[in-house]
Amino acid sequence: MNYRTTTLICNEDNRVFPLLGSEFAPSNALPVRCVFRLHAANTKVTCHRHAWDQMIFSDRGVVRVTTTRATYTVPPWRAVWIPAGVSHSAALLETAHLCSLQLLPGCMERVRENCVDLSPWLGCRVIEVRPLLRELVKALAMENIEDISARRYESYCSLILLEIIGAPACPLMVPLPSERRLRSFCDSFMKQPSLARSLDEMAREAGASVSTINRLFHTELGSRFSVWRKQALLAHALALSAQGMTLGEISYRLGYGNQSAFSAMVRQVMGVSPSEVFGVR
């Protein structure tokens, strides 16, 4: 299978740069590679795929990763895990350091304990980047990979992999359907996400009845519209937060009657307070 080089596009003047060349590819000798770079706001990475597993996150601002089946919008110190071979694009909504961790497929097998199930890592997912993992990947990125001792490098790899395997998962995925009518419905909502949007009207625009839309949500996404809508609203809220909006402004923009109702939704989906998700504003 051929994998083309990832390219990065900066919106300011539409220049194109190589993002990750072959010099950053993992290998049997170096199964974990790390790049930690400062990128400008509205940086976009074109759709691509690669032969290694990847984990990306930022130190501030919001990162958005899109695949054919889902979009992942994550705040600082939450990472998107992308298995080898999965086509995806990415965007950094604010100026921030973007960390890209490249891992040789199967390297987690080296450190996992027998009771650990690695099947969730076969698909894309979002995890929390806890403080130890943050410092480990930043430290590895600063190392001269040609001069580092084998023992030091192996210690980095083992700790990083153990931290990734043990990291809490975060429910920050907005699944996307393949069925034409439901995809049209979902795309329409995501372009203008708001509680005020009428289910009946969006269904008609998509060429389906409300009952058909509800059935398709169940068969295509294994979910209900009300559940999917919360995920989509939270993703858009993160993007609005990246623009500097307060929680009150975000609540109003998304059609919530008050900030308390919006905060309750965030806590229900994420299990933590909005201040922990968005930062104190």
Q: Which bin fits the share of residues in helices?
A: 25-40%
Total helices: the number is 9
Order of helices and strands: EEEEEEEEEEEHHEHHHHHHH
Mean pLDDT across residues: 88
Main sheet summary = 7 strands, antiparallel
Instruction: Determine the N-to-C terminus distance.
Output: 47 Å
Please indicate the percent range of residues in DSSP E strands (runs of 2 or more): 15-25%
Quick overview:
The chain has 281 residues and is α+β, with helices and mostly antiparallel strands. It is built from 9 helices and 12 strands.
Features:
single chain, 281 residues, alpha+beta, 9 helices, 22% strand, disordered N terminus
What does this structure look like?
The chain has 281 residues and is of the alpha+beta class. Helices cover 36% and strands 22% of the residues. It is built from 9 helices and 12 strands. The chain has helices spanning 131-142, 150-165, 180-191, 199-205, 210-221, 225-242, 247-253, 259-270, 274-278, and strands spanning 7-10, 15-18, 32-39, 43-48, 53-58, 63-66, 70-74, 78-82, 88-92, 96-103, 125-128, 173-175. The strands form 2 sheets. Strands 2-1-4-9-6-7-12 form a 7-stranded antiparallel β-sheet. Strands 3-10-5-8-11 form a 5-stranded antiparallel β-sheet, covered by helices on one side. Strand 1 (7-10) and strand 2 form a beta hairpin. Helix 1 (131-142) packs antiparallel against helix 2 and helix 7 (247-253) crosses helix 8. The longest helix is centred in the C-terminal third of the chain and has 18 residues, at 225-242. The N and C termini lie far apart (47 Å). Mean pLDDT is 88; it is low at 1-18.
